[in-house]
Amino acid sequence: MHPFPALATLPFRVPGPARLHRFPAAAAAETEGVRGTLRHLQVAELPVTTHANAVLHPLGPWLGEWWQGGAQDADGAFIPETGLYHWAQSVPVASLQGGQPQPPVATLDESLVWGGFLPAHHGHFIIDSLSRLWRWPVAGARRLACIGKPDEYNPVMWDMLAKAGVPRDAIVMLDRPTRVRELVVPYPSSLCYALSSDAWAATVRRVGDQAVPGTVERSGQPLYLSRSRFATAGYARGVAGEAVLEQTLRQAGFAIAYPEELDLAQAIGLVRRHETIVAQLGSALHWTAFAAAPPRIVGIAATPVPASYLLCDSAIGAEAHYLWGPDAAIAAPAVPMVNAAQHSVALDLPAVVQDLQGLGLLPAGTAIPPAGRRPRVEAQYLRYWQRVLGEYVRKRPEDAGFAAAQAAVAARLARLGG
Fold first, then answer.
1. Whole-prediction pTM value?
2. Distance (Å, rounded) from C-alpha 371 to C-alpha 416?
3. With 0-12 CB in 10 A as exposed, 13-18 as middle and 19+ as buried, what is 361?
4. What is the pLDDT of residues 185-219, one digit of tens each?
């Protein structure tokens, strides 16, 4: 059942088939398999409900994680449109099931607008945190009720909210069950992995226009958004070989940018200036949502393409291509591949360069420069494989072909850095 019946009847379009290059059959099938469940609502106005004497909860289902929040109406019933949803066909994360709600311990004699969940994650912040602001400001309400961890927000996130017309002092960050005189609940204009809309696209465009007023002259120079510096953080997924790819693209005339080093205006200015944007699959690609005109997007993937990218591409009318990036030959027999969703992966540099040539972004015969000083991501990746191959050779040295496989892996790893 659709979690929001009020949205199910609105006009929508389904994103078109993804343009996938060299994707393994399973990854292509998974990418395409979710597409039919996605909805881009072709409306600028969504439903809004108003509830007197509502109780707002930062925890749910009442004894759960901090981010699982929601609200009750005056009769104690869960208000579905306040829940956190990840899939269009799923139940909400927060509900009245599984426990009794705690009674309110605070009261606010005012009208609040439900802002929902504000995650401290760049990509999800764009999708989730801006999803209720299509209906802001609201007459008679001065503040927005939200759930989140404000100490973890970076200046760019605060600036997004400010450019949407919500300064810090207009945010009530819930930390206890709270009764309010009136709660105004705009339905979400986007749901991660499930839903986008004209209303969400207009909100993102409004933020972009406030951050970068006026018209930005467009450039045919391709832009590469790198995660090579961001990925030096211990928790971030790295891309081994990205330093060499950067060097290849820079020599071919690409502009190179590191999104985590930019403020909001700089980042939006870049995606509005460059007609073509290339990046590894990750939050950086969601900067494209702020483009003033539909860009050409090229994503380099190591997993099936998550639905949030397909929805964003559809929302802004972008032409998007996705290239399969991992070097599948870096694996000895019977050795599991790295989990690309959680750990660093190594690029198949010749294949990625060939794909970019096929898209007309690199000239034919583009040479890949030799690897220079080994960056931290490459060093971490090499240590992983040294350990794996060491364990393998101790356990399975008698396997036919092991010596050749070990030599082939070593040769491919050598491209990542000296």
1. 0.89
2. 6
3. buried
4. 999 999 888 899 999 999 999 999 999 999 999 99
